[in-house]
Every structure is written in C-alpha cells, then in structure tokens.
Amino acid sequence: MTSQFVLTFGREALTLLLMIAMPVLGVVMAVGLLVSIFQAVTQVHEATLAFVPKLLAALAVFGVVGPWMLSTLVDFIRRTIESIPSVVG
Predict the structure, then answer these.
(1) What SS3 class is residue 11?
(2) Where are the transmembrane segments (predicted)?
(3) Which of 8, 24, 31, 86 could make an S-S bridge to 57, C-beta 3.0–4.6 Å?
C-alpha cells in the first residue's frame, strides 16, 4: 500500500461524503432560512417551528434521493472491498 493509494482513497471517500450529504444539507439549510425569515417577520420564536419543518424536509429528501445515496455507497464499498487483494498482495 503506497501513500499515493491512501491519499487517492481518502480523496474519493471525502468527495463521496460531500456528494451524498449535499442534497440533504442544501434542502435543510434552505428550509431553515425560510423558517427563520418567517419567524423574523411574524416575531414568533418557537423552537418546534424551527425543528419540525427541517425534519420533514430531510425525510422528504431521503425519500426522494435515498435510493441513489444507497446505491452510490454500496458501489463505493464494493469497489473498496474488491481492491483489498491488490492492496495487501
């Protein structure tokens, strides 16, 4: 196992992490911004009003994008496991 392989593997893992996390984080951030604007306009500062819409948005994104996320992760794990013999030997 060379240092180049380790760096390449780490870069691929971080890229995959960002690619998979971005849809959920983006939607939750957008919903959080909209809820914050609504709270500022109406001056209603309730904690559940900020939490529940973000939770529902995250669940909706997982429902829509979840199969893609899972297949991408399974493909990465499969490639990683299949590369073990070439790394060890």
Answers:
(1) helix
(2) 12-38, 50-70
(3) 31
Give the span between the Cα atoms of 35 and 27, in whole angstroms: 12
Q: CA-to-CA distance for 73 and 78, rounded, in angstroms?
A: 8
What is the dihedral sign for C-alpha 70, 73, 76, 81? negative
| Residue 69: partners with Cβ closer than 8 Å, 6 or more residues away | 20, 23, 62
Residues 6+ apart with CB under 8 A from 27: 57, 58, 60, 61
Q: 12: which 2 tokens?
A: 């691929």
Average pLDDT, the chain: 92
DSSP code string of 45-69: --HHHHHHHHHHHHHHHHHHHHHHH
Query: Which of 3-7, 12-16, 36-40, 85-89 is predicted most confidently?
Result: 12-16
* Total-model pTM: 0.80
